[in-house]
Fold this protein.
Amino acid sequence: MVNFVLIGLCVLAGMIFKSTKSIHPDAHKGINTWILYLALPAVSFKYLPKVEWSLEMLFPIFSTVLIAVGSLFFMKYYSQAKNYSRRSRSTLEIASGYSNTSFIGFPLIAAFYNEKLLSIAIISDQTMFLTLSTLGIISALKGGSKSGSVSTKFILRRLFTFPPFIGCISALVISQFINLDFAEPLFDKLAGTVAPLALFSVGLQLKFSGWRKLIPQISMSMLYKLLLAPLIVLLVALALGVKGNVAKISVFEAAMPTLITSSIIAEQFRLNTKLTNLIIGISIIVGFATVGFWYFVIEALF
């Protein structure tokens, strides 16, 4: 319940500060810098060293990547049909292919299932961030490029200088040689700033003017993120014979609304932040209803 109140409070605070001009118009850029360079890497160091890797855990990894790749194809054909620009297409890809697996996903899993199953959710969450740091950045770079194409050298340079990606790789490598338990309180504090600051940043950038013109894009993004993505994961799980808690949590995490960090990626790479923020805000509200629907579907089939 606290998380849901925090969502509304942080977004509303950002909107109020912006409307009353109590904060610098570009304040969200400083906030996003903190999240990218400190908070998100801390998330990797907090969770990755504790992940218990096994063959069974390959499915949450596979399903998370599948959602992101599916978004690329789905939005490609949708954008072509609507004759959208490469920038709009990349915006829709970023806003539709990555789930809010932690801030909203973790408490919902604890509420609907059991906190012990967060070990599976952590796999989905970290894979999602790694996928966002690779496929997401490539998509954002292409959308921010005037020509729509970017050289491999440029992509690799941006990828290997992208703080969350560096954080993921560093956490995986360093934890193999050094016990990081002594720094866990620090990682907890830094990681805890991601959700409130990201939501506050969304509120600072949220604009409802002209939202009616964006209804087709918002609707199509939520159609994929809240309905088609979990359906795809569910069908693949049934086809592969994946059962039990791994299947349940993988589908449940796929049903989560749009990742808040998508807004930061959109802003950093000059995509359509207005559209991204509207999708984030609306998908969170609608997502609470669709998640309940998917819970009953999952329990009936697994």
Summary: The two ends are 27 Å apart (CA to CA). Residues 78 and 297 are 27 Å apart (CA to CA).
